[in-house]
Fold:
Amino acid sequence: MTEVTQPALTIDALGKKCPIPIIMLAEQINYVPLNAVVAVLADDPAAYTDVPAWCRLKSHRHVGSYELPDGGWAIHVRRNY
Structure:
């Protein structure tokens, strides 16, 4: 079963190299309610592994990474605290 939740916030980091998508996520995750999902749109291959790694480091939950039709991913992160 896949858990797809409508993101409360979408961060458009397309065209930006890591660590910019992670910096944007770290700056904005506290603006969504607890347990809400933030979608990070990124096309830097490093973001595909770095965002889930950041989630483990910061104790947030990587919900899933979904391919975008024009390339890149929507990486969904659930705010845990």
Remarks:
- The mean pLDDT is 95.
- Residues 45-58 form the longest helix (14 residues).
- The longest strand covers residues 61-67.
